Amino acid sequence: MNEHYPFINPPLPYPYNALEPYIDEKTMMLHHDRHLQTYVDNLNNTLKNYPQYQSLSLEQLLFHIDCLPKEIQDSVKNNAGGVFNHLLYFSTLNHIDQSDKLLGSILNTFGSFEEFEKQFTSAALSVFGSGYAWLVYDPYGNLTILTTKNQDTPIPLGFYPVLNLDVWEHAYYLKHYNKRADYIRDWFSLLKKNLSIS
Ligand code: MN
């Protein structure tokens, strides 16, 4: 499912209110049903007349963006990025695969969870305007924090995404208003739950 064109917007894998009180039901509904849906629709429209690229996965489209026809590069970058970024964001808000292993890597890399939280929070606050903070594996297998603008992804740089935090205002404005730091703290509450940190 969702391996290639036509891409779909899969149902949120949990109820819209499942992340209360950290992320509110209305934000989740609008974010998933409207924002993500728009990226899915725009990506499908972009690829509609390009059958030669319709068998590529999101990751393949994003990794090979420079090989696509010039006239669709920006649209694929923004919309395939928008789909990839939101699918990762929504899924990891509620569940993390092999969470023991990830927690072990975080502790090995950053020394403590508090130090990781400090560095990741600082990165997420540093994004000017819209974008994401990321926890990725670099090409050598080391965990690294980085940020991207808009719907850019770390994929073309050869990084393997583990977690991302959407810091576009649509992700938090209804509940947290302009207070991105409060939203980041609430996002960390969910992450700690998913990593079984009390
Ligand atoms: Mn978003």
Heteromolecules bound: manganese (II) ion
* Annotation field: number of helices: 7
- Shape assignment: globular
Strand-residue fraction?
5-15%
Termini separation = 35 Å
Helicity range of the residues?
40-55%
Strand order of the largest sheet: 2-1-3
**What does the average pLDDT come to?**
97
Main β sheet profile: 3 strands, antiparallel
- The total beta strand count reads 3
Derived structural class: mainly alpha
pLDDT < 50 stretches: none
What is Rg?
17 Å
Kindly describe this structure.
- The chain has 198 residues and is mainly alpha-helical.
- Helices cover 49% and strands 11% of the residues.
- It has 7 helices and 3 strands, in the order H-H-H-H-H-E-E-E-H-H.
- A 3-stranded antiparallel sheet has the order 2-1-3.
- Strand 1 and strand 2 (143-149) form a beta hairpin.
Task: Give a short overview.
With 198 residues, the protein is mostly helical. It is built from seven helices and three strands, in the order αααααβββαα. Strand 1 (131-137) and strand 2 form a beta hairpin.
Observed structural traits:
binds manganese (II) ion, 3 strands, mainly alpha, 49% helix, 198 residues, single chain
